[in-house]
Amino acid sequence: MSTGPVRGAVEALLFVAGEPLPASRMARILGVSEAVVREALEELAQACRAPGRGIELVEVAGGWQLVTRPEYSRAVEELLQPRRQALSRAALETLAIIAYRQPVTRAEIEAIRGVQSDAGLRALLERGLVREVGRKEAPGRPILYGTTPLFLQQFGLRDLSELPPPGTFAAGASPEPEQPAGGGHVATLSGSPPDAEPQPDTPPAPRAAS
Length: 210
Prior knowledge:
Helix content: 25-40%
Subcellular location: Cytoplasm
Function: Participates in chromosomal partition during cell division. May act via the formation of a condensin-like complex containing Smc and ScpA that pull DNA away from mid-cell into both cell halves.
Distance between the termini: 77 Å
CATH superfamily of the largest domain: Winged helix-like DNA-binding domain superfamily/Winged helix DNA-binding domain
Largest sheet: 3 strands, antiparallel
Radius of gyration: 20 Å
CATH architecture of the largest domain: Orthogonal Bundle
Keywords: Cell cycle, Cell division, Chromosome partition, Cytoplasm
Organism: Thermaerobacter subterraneus DSM 13965
CATH class of the largest domain: Mainly Alpha
Shape: elongated
InterPro entries: ScpB_csome_segregation, WH-like_DNA-bd_sf, WH_DNA-bd_sf
Structural class: alpha+beta
């Protein structure tokens, strides 16, 4: 198979996948070497950089994905608005703590935020942004939470080493997501740092009188 057909096949796979695809997986599917796939990816990325294109090719979460260009994100958001609802400030704070301190227990999250975080944690679990990664060797063996590959995908990160410094979080900022061509979205990491003023899911429980 020449480079041209491989590039077309790679573009088709990326379009229908709706999630990042590793070059190695595409090579197995197409029956060619990974080097050939990477050459096709470079050609496709170059083609997507041409003026007037609405999509671009990005490397994210250990794979490659076609996403809409940032300048068209608002139009795509308008199309997808009925399907999705923004995370609350409390959920974003909880997500920030998990991302930077994982693995972490719910009690540790609440100790940092100073409020109960059940609702925010539940929302993150339902969206697949965090998951249970084990249990802590402590009394009661509490559940440990960490981020998922979908978290990397949604926030446009290749891996956790690309997390921005906590101090660069913009408190109260709204994500400006790019939209993958195959569905879903890639959001920019925004919210508030783990030590920011907490936004409660529920009010803190009253302290017992001493």
